[in-house]
């Protein structure tokens, strides 16, 4: 009886096991980032029919983060609504057999793509999206010395083989922990790194982190973290004529326009324009110098701008470089100027101007303010003379406030299209060229006209300048162009000019300066 009972129990157990329902099979869609080359990436999605019946048509939908886009795809029909993309099977592949798979691919921009989100397949969760790939690394932080940058980040979820640290598309370090030091760097160098967790299934990228090695000695005195620069006219034109004493408190840095050339190469001279002196009811050199000192007492800085549209200052040799440094330093001592602004619109030699500015720095000391006001075309690439100059004196350069006007449409750092001047896209996409090609964010400012009459084209509402600053500092309030990362240390804004601002009821300074003060 006992044997019979045991056999009966075993038979019952076998029957019950046989009767358990099998786990339901499903269809999945799996995303893999095939490659990433810094300015773009390639993605691939594989749709797998894990069911026992053929699938008639498939529809994959997902979102990509703000700032990323997918311009082209293959082996699928693509449509887009904002950051949401839909992919459906091509007409020649309308049926997916049971157990079969089909893949489609796409190219996107920019690079350092972190992955997709909200993936659905025929209305249900994709299930296999990013399956097996590590989670996104935690936010990276950086500490610096004069020759190294140490990065630390939060561990990724999932199975992690290790972490690769990229600068652009180049792997700078591969580690199994969550910290690394990248050495062999120079003083005052800025680098942007992206940490990516990896395993056999692929990589997952964290947010980029930018850091600058110590040893920067650029001037700037007591200029605020975010400041407003304005040019003051030492000439008469349709704008309001002003004495320096009439410059309002909204301006932190006043650039006196202009120092002029002589017959001696590189020499710069300055004197009050007699027509201006008459227009403001009388103005002497002594009164001007007293006004410079009064501005200093108010916490302002005053520099001499060299060049301008009609300027003919030329520094094209060693002797001219020496003469430039000697003559500008003499003017600084005589008038109380805190530095110099390079606004040469009729030719610039980066090699000898760098020599001149370094010589001036050796005379004036670490408090010397050096600014530059290139035209938009001058900062389109690092091969331009102005850009070469900025990079070659980066360790002593205060700020570059490019003139984002009088230029027409221009390519931005994404190289995707020519952006129309007078727009948030234009200001942010072109500033991004400098920010992504060697200048520190604290060395980049936006130069705009103060209102109607100040420029032939590119006049913008001051509110749009504030919007562009927020886009660059926080990646908020952007237009269709979104920068690849945030630059919270973006330096500020410049306007041509204080006189034109006065002609337009101080709209520029009274709108932009409070916004700069409110930036972190």
Protein described:
- The protein is an alpha/beta fold.
- It is 23% helix and 30% strand.
- It has ten helices and 30 strands.
- It starts with a helix and ends with a helix.
How many angstroms does the end-to-end distance come to?
Answer: 86 Å
Give the biggest beta sheet: 8 strands, parallel, barrel
**Biggest sheet strand line-up:** 20-21-23-24-25-26-29-30
Summed over residues and divided by their number, the pLDDT gives a mean of 88
Low-confidence stretches: 1-24
User: Strand fraction band?
Assistant: 25-35%
Share of helical residues: 10-25%
Coarse shape: elongated
Question: What is the radius of gyration computed over CA atoms, rounded to a whole number of angstroms?
Answer: 30 Å
Separate helix tally: 10
Overall strand count: 30
What structural class do helix, strand and pairing data support? alpha/beta
Organism: Nonomuraea marmarensis
Keywords: Carbohydrate metabolism, Glycosidase, Hydrolase, Polysaccharide degradation, Signal
Protein name: chitinase
Domain CBM2: 20-129
Précis, in short:
By secondary structure, the protein is of the alpha/beta class. The protein has helices at 2-19, 274-279, 285-297, 318-335, 350-364, 385-392, 424-435, 462-474, 498-503, 507-518; strands at residues 27-36, 41-49, 55-56, 59-63, 69-74, 77-81, 84-88, 95-96, 101-109, 117-121, 124-125, 141-144, 149-152, 162-167, 170-175, 179-182, 190-199, 202-205, 209-212, 227-233, 253-261, 268-269, 301-308, 339-344, 369-372, 399-403, 410-411, 418-419, 444-449, 492-496. Helix 4 (318-335) packs parallel to helix 5 (350-364), helix 7 packs across helix 8 (462-474) and helix 8 packs parallel to helix 10.
């Amino acid at each position: 009886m006992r044997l019979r009972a045991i056999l009966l129990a075993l038979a019952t157990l076998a029957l019950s096991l046989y009767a358990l329902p099998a786990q339901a099979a499903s269809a999945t869609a799996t995303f893999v980032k095939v490659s990433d080359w810094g300015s773009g990436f390639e993605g691939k999605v594989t749709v797998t029919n894990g069911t026992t019946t053929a699938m008639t048509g498939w529809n994959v939908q997902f979102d990509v983060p703000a700032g990323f886009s997918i311009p082209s795809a293959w082996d699928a029909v693509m449509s887009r609504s904002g950051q949401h993309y839909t992919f459906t099977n091509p007409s020649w592949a309308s049926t997916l057999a049971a157990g079969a798979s089909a893949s489609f691919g796409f190219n996107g921009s920019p690079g350092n793509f972190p992955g997709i989100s909200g993936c659905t397949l025929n209305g249900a969760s994709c299930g296999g999206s990013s399956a097996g790939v590590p989670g996104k690394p935690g936010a990276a932080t950086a500490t610096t010395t004069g020759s190294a940058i140490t990065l630390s980040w939060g561990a990724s979820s999932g199975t992690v083989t290790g972490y690769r640290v990229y600068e652009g598309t180049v792997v700078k370090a591969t580690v199994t922990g969550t910290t690394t030091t990248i050495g062999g760097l120079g003083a005052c160098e800025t680098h942007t790194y992206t940490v990516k967790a990896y395993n056999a299934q692929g990589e997952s990228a964290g947010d980029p982190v930018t850091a600058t090695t110590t040893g920067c000695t650029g001037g700037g005195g007591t200029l605020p973290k975010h400041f407003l620069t304005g040019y003051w006219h030492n000439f008469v034109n349709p704008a309001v004529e002003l004495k320096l004493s009439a410059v309002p408190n909204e301006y932190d840095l006043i650039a006196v326009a202009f120092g002029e050339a002589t017959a001696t190469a590189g020499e710069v001279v300055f004197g009050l324009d007699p027509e201006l002196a008459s227009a403001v009811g009388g103005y002497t050199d002594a009164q001007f110098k007293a006004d410079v000192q009064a501005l200093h007492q108010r916490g302002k800085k005053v520099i001499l701008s060299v060049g301008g549209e009609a300027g003919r200052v030329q520094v094209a040799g060693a002797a001219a470089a020496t003469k430039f440094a000697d003559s500008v330093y003499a003017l600084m001592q005589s008038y109380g100027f805190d530095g110099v602004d390079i606004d040469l619109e009729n030719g610039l030699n980066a090699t000898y101007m760098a020599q001149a500015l370094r010589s001036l720095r050796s005379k004036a000391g670490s408090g010397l303010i050096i600014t530059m006001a290139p035209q938009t075309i001058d900062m389109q690439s690092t091969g331009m003379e102005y850009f070469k100059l900025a990079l070659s004196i980066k360790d002593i350069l205060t700020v570059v406030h490019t003139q984002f006007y009088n230029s027409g449409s221009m390519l931005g750092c994404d190289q995707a299209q020519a952006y129309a001047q007078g727009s948030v896209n234009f200001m942010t996409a072109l500033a991004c060229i400098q920010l992504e090609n060697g200048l520190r964010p604290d060395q980049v400012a936006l130069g705009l006209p103060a209102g109607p009459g100040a420029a032939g084209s590119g006049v913008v509402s001051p509110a749009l300048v504030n919007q562009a600053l927020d886009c660059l500092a926080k990646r908020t309030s952007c237009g269709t162009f979104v920068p690849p990362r945030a630059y919270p240390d973006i330096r500020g804004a410049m306007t041509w000019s204080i006189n034109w601002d006065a002609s337009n009821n101080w709209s520029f300074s009274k709108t932009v300066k409070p916004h700069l003060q409110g930036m972190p």
